[in-house]
Design a protein that fits this description.
The chain folds into two domains: about 40 residues, no CATH class; about 90 residues, K homology (KH) domain (GMP Synthetase, Chain A, domain 3), CATH 3.30.300. Helix content is about 25%, strand content about 30%. It contains two helices and eight strands. Helix 1 crosses helix 2.
């Protein structure tokens, strides 16, 4: 149905190449290099804390997809949203097979509706439920994704 492209560019900057010495800094590109962001491994894995790590990008991807789906559903229902913010958190844990994985992601959205648009808590919960069911990214992963809206 559609294709989505991303580039990853890394070059060794260390004199030698051992686990302790090689650089983790790299660049992720989109739109044929027109959009770039500095990336690295997570600091816990000898990466640069001032760069985006893959686990953070994964959490952001789930959060953004849920938000975009939520906004689309609200627009179709004629529920005007003024703002949507999320401080999502991903949890890396060791699985039963002994391998690390991002086992769960908590989305923590704060949504402000336009004056005169006041859906019930039940309606909002229903929209979140449908957003999760329809989110392309959530449908692509085995990580448990939950929504705990902030008041």
């Amino acid at each position: 149905m559609s294709e989505h492209h991303a580039g990853v560019r890394w070059t060794r900057t260390s004199a030698d190449f051992t686990y302790d010495s090689y650089n983790r800094a790299h660049e992720v590109t989109f739109k044929d290099g027109a959009i770039r962001y500095p990336a690295s491994a997570a600091a816990a894995f000898r990466g640069d804390a001032d760069r985006v790590d893959p686990e953070e990008a994964f959490v952001a991807s789930l959060s953004a997809c849920h938000m975009l789906t939520f906004l689309a559903i609200c627009a179709r229902k004629r529920l005007t949203v003024d703002s949507y913010e999320d401080d999502a958190v991903g949890f890396m844990e060791k699985g039963s097979n002994g391998k690390l994985w991002v086992s769960r992601v908590e989305l923590r959205p704060r949504i402000r509706f336009a004056p005169g648009t006041e859906p019930s808590a039940e309606t909002i919960a229903d929209i979140h439920h449908h957003s999760h069911e329809e989110c392309f990214i959530a449908n692509s992963v085995k990580t448990d994704v939950s929504v705990a809206p902030h008041p």
